[in-house]
Amino acid sequence: MRDDLTLLEAQQTLRLRAGFPCRWSVWTADGRGWYPHGTSPARDIDGLPYFHGDDVVLEVPSSRLTVRAARGMEYGHAETTLTPGAGETLVELAPPRIYDAAARGWYGGDLHVRLNRPPQWVADSQHGEDLHVVNLLAGDGDTEDLWAGRNLPWSDATHVARVGLAQDAPSVPSGSVDKLRERGALIGYANAFRGPVETPEQLFDGGYPIYDARMSVVDAALGLVDSFSSAIGSDRAYRRLIGAGNRVAAVAGTAGRLGPIGGERTYAHVDGPLTAESYAHAVRHSRTFATTGPFLELSVEGERPGATIDLQAGTRVRATARVIGPGVQRVRLLTADGELASGPPNEVAAELRVDWPTYVVAVAEGGGLVRAHSSPVYLDVERRRVAREEDVTFCLRWLDLLEGLVKDRDGLVTEARRVYQSRLA
Asked: Same domain, yes or no, for 313 and 421?
């Protein structure tokens, strides 16, 4: 659909106001989008035109228009239709709030935003989507060195933007991991892989394993990454990794995504004020859930994701999952051995007898897709970690398939294989 910034009809002036930055969409019956002067045309994944700001002015035709105000996943949207009159027409719309994650200590971030737009566009987008944390992938060393360890200028108490807060694992030499972590950086994958993963072979149907999260079977075993970026798109692969004894956080997002930033978010539970450092610390310790929209909480004996509870064999624990937000049809509690409980949205709870090491995660599903996935609460038994034989065997086969495709990392693959084999002992 063509978006014209030059009007072919009589011009009218529209002023849009919400009282806070929003994502605005303005379109005519033919689907054409209208934008403020100087704004680059953009469309979201559903094809709607959009731009960000508050109290913005744009020129529009004197024909019937639809105006929508939205603001990221913590909000719904407000919409109206009108025909602008002579002079300036004021439209006041405010999207309704669905949940307030920050009020509960949770802050959502997009860890994979490419710096291929002007900085002002990124700033307007972050505030217009109410996205708490943005990690920018600079693409050049000079930009990263310039802003290393500093917030970008538009950051405030509840919105933090950094360059290099999260590093893409394929570009990090294994010898640099400790140095980057000392600087507070997270290490993970900017490119997720997606699709069903019933067998290891399904991980290798396409793509480039050296660039996406398929290398995580190596890096997770060796402690070289903090997170797994396919927890939503390949949730079963994530659970195979944690079931095999790896402790990595569930995170969301991919650098190749369409639409506004923050369409998938990694929420982390932060103790105290939000800073880049406190957010990274929370992600590194798996105090997270990954989501495409719903707010998902997991509690096991009062502990949140990332916690480890050491138990005596035979101890009983209670787990609860709660979800807020649209698009969810089922909430599930899962352990290393499968489903513990499931039910319709809102809250699901169950009791579990722990006889051997395991974990508990919460998953929200809708429309045949995973909408949100938590990191685990780990349930150790007498200091023994979960290392389920079926999951370890899965990871060993994963390594076999990977080995021939990443010749330059054969040594790491061999080392990871020894780690997994030791967990079978």
From this structure: no
Per DSSP, the three-state class of 221 is helix
Indicate the residue among 40, 64, 92 that finishes a domain: 92
Instruction: Give the number of other CB atoms < 10 A from CB of residue 273.
Output: 8
Question: Within a domain: residue 5?
Answer: no
Range of the domain at 125: 99-287+388-425
> Is the overall model pTM greater than 0.90, yes or no?
yes
Please check whether residue 32 lies inside any domain of the structure. yes
Rounded to an integer, what distance in angstroms lies between the CA atom of residue 162 and that of residue 109? 11
| pLDDT tens-place string over residues 411-423 | 899 999 999 999 9
With tokens 């680059």, the residue in question is: 40
Total number of residues shown for the chain: 425
Count of domains observed in the chain: 3
Residue with tokens 């209670």: 318
Q: What are the angstrom distances between the C-alpha of 109 and each of 12, 18, 54, 87, 209?
A: 38, 23, 22, 41, 25
Which uninterrupted H or E stretch holds 366? strand 358-366
Q: Rg of the Cα trace of the chain? A: 23
